[in-house]
User: Fold this.
Amino acid sequence: MRGDQTIRPGGAFGGISAEPAGAPGDVVAAARARLRRRTEIAMEAARLVRTRGLEAARFIGRTQFREAEFPLFERLAERCDRRLRG
Assistant:
């Protein structure tokens, strides 16, 4: 373990948690930011699918969702591809 971390009892699974010393909330803040970004992308995708259809969903699934590491929407793009093909 590096010197800039502290060990705290009661981690995510009841064990110990190693978080950066002096900034235990940074981990939570980063997770919230990722969730907020994914939610924004999902809402934008839903709006585009309603207004522009499968082509828009496929485009979004191939670009922004991959950026957000959101495999659910990558699968959505694959389903859109299949529907558009046949």
Remarks:
- Residues 7 and 21 are 9 Å apart (CA to CA).
- Strands lie at 5-9, 16-20.
